[in-house]
Amino acid sequence: MDYKFLFNLSKYEKITLLIIVSIFVNNLFIDIMNVDAAQYASISLEMLHSHSYLQVKDLQSDYLDKPPLLFWISSLSLGLFGVCNFAYKIGAFLMLLLSLYSVFRFTSIYYSQNVAKNAVFIFGTCQAFFLMTNDVRTDGILTSSVITAVWLLTEYFLHKNIKYLVFAAVFTAFAMMAKGPVGIIAVLMPVGLQLLYEKKWKQIFSFSWFFYLLIICLLLIPMSYGLYTQFDLHPEKITNGVPHQSGLYFYYWLQSFGRITGENFWDNGLPWHFFIGTISWDFFPWILILYFGLFFQIKKILNKTSIEISSISGFLLLFILFSMSHYKLPHYLFVTFPFASIICADYLETLSQKQWKNWNKIYFGFGIIVLILLLIYQVFFFTELNFILILLVLLQLFVLFRLNKISINGINKMVGYVIVLNLFLSFVFYPKLLTYQADSMAGKWFFENKTNDKVYFLDEKSHSFNFYTKNPVHKLITLKDIDTIQKPCWLFTKQDNLQQIESKVQVIEKKKFENYPITRLKLPFLLEQKRAGTLEYYYLIKIKTRIQS
Length: 549
Prior knowledge:
The chain has about 550 residues and is an alpha/beta fold. It has helices at about 10-25, 35-50, 70-80, 85-110, 115-125, 125-135, 140-160, 160-180, 180-195, 200-205, 210-230, 245-255, 260, 275-280, 285-300, 310-325, 335-350, 355-380, 385-405, 410-415, 420-435, 440-450, 465-470, 500-505, 525, 530; strands at about 55-60, 60, 240, 240-245, 455-460, 475, 490-495, 505-515, 535-545.
């Protein structure tokens, strides 16, 4: 396969690619967000300290939720690079880079290399991809593992080369060790339906599937053994409030399928159409093109002119499956976006010159919206002078009124109108927003200034504080336990507890930190004039022994 055209990029395309890469790299150094990513980072650190790789602990307690692949990868990189944002994120990021390669290889099987290149570009510039390089959870590894396994299985059934089958099984196992049984469903659904569509009965009933499943089962043994010894051998344990919880049953059934059947107690009460709203942002700026692409794909299938249905089945059927879940979060859909990108790229290949001009007008409108957002941020949200933001405003003005005059067709021009949005998010918005994550700020301050002192959590623990102090074993105490402390130490606590603490002990030093749940942004917090009323405060307090009456 000829990849030379990937390097024969125009000057404009090279600049665009450089900007995108700069965003990816900068995202690796941004602080870790609460709640999920901070928890996973803390678990990875705890795993590194305890060397307990099969029996996963979270704040010294049994952990039964996500499979361990992300923790294994991150604990390894934390050991190699030290405890920092980059070390936690780099493993998942490398997997995401692999997903771009896999999208290209898979798309090239059925379509032209131009369609394959466009599919890579679309996937790599949707908001979800930028988010996965920043707010690292299990979804990046799942997404990469699924599209890689789909590509490798497709290659195997075309060329009968056993190496493709072996590595397809490996990445399917990775998908299951990243998110659970949904991983193998996300792989087999598009591949199986494609074989049915092509009526390849011999391949559907091939003995190769036995070999494929055998490799997966072998790779799942370490994780399964850890679950069995941690939970199934200890029926006396109460885990997540449930007595006699089987780790194997929880992982292989309850956590995934139980959300559809209702057996899993997690239910956030969101309607079936929840993802129709969230995908508008997560797949921005390609969401409108996706709608047209879906119609285009369905029309081809009805007219029996479609050469592949892996993409539409990988997107649409998984979308429906996730919509049936009793518990929904926006990032659940990310695994479908490689398929959505192929749908978009195939549709764009059919556009006429006039249609390209119409789409460019729409994206010029998107660019105007980005410019307005930058100005609103500076005037109403965070009004202190920010030179990076000023440069971005000037850059967006240049892009809008210079790029509009350049006769370039294709997605490079379309993404050019909105790429400044992610420069803004990565270099301005998220760094500022994360200063309102009190436990992260407190953890960094404590590590830099008081790292050898003893600190206790009061009433509630914090994953971020653990990670940024590089210490996963801080103890939890209650207000009544303060009387038992014999030596000077620090407390990390909410402002609500401050008065009672001062009535019990002598406070000799304290440090105040602003806090807001940054993953649940609301307008009053963003508006500078109203922000103070939305904040809560945490304190690091140094205390001495109890005051004697």
